[in-house]
Design goal:
- The protein is mainly α.
- The chain has a domain at 26-104.
- 54% of the residues lie in helices and 0% in strands.
- It is built from five helices and no strands.
- The chain has helices spanning 2-24, 29-46, 53-65, 73-84, 87-101.
- The chain is elongated and about 95 Å long.
């Protein structure tokens, strides 16, 4: 009988601990979305190759851990659209990302109106000036008539 009581007590304690973890985790979809987005974004920026399909699957797993059905693309798009229109959510996400992984983000990523530099583009893509070309339309046309001897 004492053994049964001990086992039941341990099961009760473990279940309370697990339930407690849920109590201190995200309380609603909005909070879960913010936390999952911060973690997934940091994961992507901290990876060696954010375009690696494995990294993408790991980021999806983060959302799944927060209760999102990542296999339902339409539903995930709907959720992302809903919260991207909510300025308080975007601010929470931005602040969370800067706090959690700001040191690995490209400089100026969150500067208002900033466009990230494209290091792969040439600095000047204009053709060099042709010093022999006329600079205006006043240059007379060349005489193309054959010379008479």
């Amino acid at each position: 009988m004492k053994t049964t009581v001990k086992v039941l007590s341990m099961v009760l304690v473990v279940s309370l601990l697990l339930a407690g973890c849920k109590l201190f985790g995200p309380k609603d979809e909005k909070e879960a979305f913010v936390e999952a987005t911060v973690k997934a974004t940091c994961h992507l920026f901290q990876s060696e190759n954010m375009l690696d399909p494995k990294v993408n699957e790991e980021a999806k797993a983060i959302y799944k851990d927060y209760g999102f059905d990542v296999d339902d693309t339409a539903k995930m798009d709907e959720i992302a659209k809903k919260y991207s229109a909510d300025e308080s959510v975007t601010t929470l996400i931005k602040d969370g990302i800067q706090k959690e992984c700001g040191s690995v983000l490209p400089a100026g990523l969150f500067d208002e109106g900033a466009v990230p530099a494209d290091d792969t583009a040439p600095a000047d893509d204009t053709a060099p000036a042709d010093d022999t070309a006329p600079t205006d339309d006043t240059t007379p046309a060349a005489d193309t008539t054959p010379a008479v001897e």
